[in-house]
Amino acid sequence: MKRIAFARIAQESNALSPVATTLADFESAHYLAGDALLEAATRGPEVAGFFRRAELAGFVQAARARKADVEPVPILSAWAASGGPLDRACFEALEARLVDGLRAAGRLDGLYLCLHGAMGALGVPDPESRLLAAARTVIGGAPLVVSHDLHGNLTRARVGHADAIVAYHTNPHRDHVRTGRKAGRIAIGTVLGELKPQMAWRSLPMLLGGGTTIDFLSPMRSIFARMRHAERSREILAASTFMVHPWNDDPALGWSTLCVTDGDAAAADRLADELAERCWAVRERLPPEFRSADDAIAAARAARIRRKLGCVVMADASDVVSAGAPGDSTHLVRALLERGSGMLVYAAVRDPHAIAALWPRDAGETVATQLGGSLDPARSEALTVRARIASKHDRPGFGRTLVLAIDHVRLVVTEGPALVMRPSFYTEVGLDPWRADIVVVKNFFPFLMFFLPYNRKTIFVRTRGATDFDAAFALRFDGPMHPRDRVDDWRERDRLRRAIA
Ligand SMILES: [Zn+2]
Q1: What is the DSSP string of 271-320?
Q2: How would residue 501 be classed by pLDDT, with cut points 50, 70 and 90?
């Protein structure tokens, strides 16, 4: 009987956010270990409040399918909402718990690690590779299989420590379980001596491209189809394209491709190279330009019938909490207050200071207060308002929450990250999207699925914030970076990054 450990340490970090992620953020969002983790990955919910089943459930399914040969050994699972990089104490605590957990697990024949791939930690370069190195100190040369979000950033150290890396095949992501199962099958096959994974990869000096980067839309559709097709052959164990999270502080940032084959290094190399060429060919297809707040409000006003039949959903693309922004931006809500009169607006802002100050007040009271711009004051200014406290709530994940009525705007003020992408963010505090003209979300993609019943028109709005695509251009890179700079040839940087002479 072979024993394969499994663990998760996952968070997507935005290096531009000044709000560091702490151990308390993980422990309050999702933290499980030992038997409780095995139970959650077997029967669910795997990440309560977020995922009924995800990668670890997929891994456990793969292990159950080989239960005569393999025992899955739970170590720990820690997940936090996107935000700023982990503070150092948080990173070191998680790293120590992973190492201690692996040591305490007894003899291990392999390890599956579920990592986001775009996690940052203050003062720790490439922290996820360091986790792999730390795991290696316990498991030695035993097979180590890693799964990543496709927004992860591959590095030489990462690929060097892992026997295989697999990533999602969908964006917006909806194949967490399948990805875990794929990683599990590779780990199990390798541990049992049935597979000999060979990995090859490419790294592109490319931050943006591929249009909307949605897997079922052009131009990425054909690249995802190519990967799926490749994986139908027995020899190709996994083919991945990483459309990197651009706000990650690593000089060797960029899109990358990776292929894992069973024993055929040359085939892995050929496919990784082909996928890199395909990605490079769509580099000029930049993300769509987003509207200004004024244009967005005018467009919503003109969409009278659509507002009657449902609502207009405005995505605040400069303050996307699910991509690590602080969620305290006031630009869009200020514009909606000033120029959106006559339309009922639901919006959200995170402000723990305002919550602390207003929490003793009762529902129904009118208060004068400052809101927002407190976590990231360099990017937006506080709003000064008179508001009626419409309701008070204490919610897991969001913390203490106030709904404020300010003229035609219902503003949901949260203590914790204002991860606004599901209608339940509003319905749970008594705000019915059927009644609203405009509903603001702080998310790039998944809201499109969740708001389908209500949404009659989607408008992406750009103001100024930590998730502006060109804000990432201010980060440090190891050379010219498309599309900030002109880059004619990707191969030279790829060779440098992979240290190929
Ligand atoms: Zn992602």
Answers
A1: HHHHHHHHHHHTTT-PPPPPBPHHHHHHHHHH-HHHHHHSEEEEEETTS-
A2: low
